[in-house]
Amino acid sequence: DAKTTQPNSMESNEEEPVHLPCNHSTISGTDYIHWYRQLPSQGPEYVIHGLTSNVNNRMASLAIAEDRKSSTLILHRATLRDAAVYYCILRNYGQNFVFGPGTRLSVLP
Amino acid sequence: GAVVSQHPSWVICKSGTSVKIECRSLDFQATTMFWYRQFPKQSLMLMATSNEGSKATYEQGVEKDKFLINHASLTLSTLTVTSAHPEDSSFYICSARDYGSDSYEQYFGPGTRLTVT
Hints:
Chain A is mainly beta. Chain A has strands spanning about 10-15, 20-25, 30-40, 45-50, 55, 60-65, 70-75, 85-90, 105-109. Chain A has no helices and nine strands. In chain A, a hairpin with a 6-residue loop joins strand 3 and strand 4 (about 45-50). In chain B, a hairpin with a 5-residue loop joins strand 5 and strand 6. The chains are: A mainly beta, B mainly beta. The interface of A and B includes residues 42, 43, 94, 101 and 102 of A.
């Protein structure tokens, strides 16, 4: 399984944008980049995923580097409810999800 | 999106007893379901993969006789923790793969917190 590297923790102020980085230098051409988040005592929640192009949805944006060796999850306006552990996962078609330690995001009021 | 439910959401049991956790895909058929375990402050670890109608595949280090998995229908998988001990206390999360989706998306349940006293 291709590996990802994320910072252990990040802090943000409420209503400010948050950029969560993920490095995946060994990504293969068919690996999708998935982002999930996990709120305390809950199961993982899908955030966004992409292959090559940047992606936007109602929750976040995903910016993928041109060489695909890194990506950034962008929360446009952080709220207190966005405090969670964010996981960046590489997954090939039909493969299992392998979770790393993720980034623990704290949002300060 | 598709919904996966788990029951119960939390359970407390005495050491030596068995506990069954159910995982259901509510609006799609899941021929493959996954069971994860998560200890406090740690990430999710895959325990086993279950395919409908066949035996589960366990990850290295997971005792198949202790964690019994049954996937008898396309919408239900169960995990039974047999002869539970305090070290089995953990957060158990199931996930189901939707083969009806274009990219075989996988959806996660809300988790079941098991406490063994």
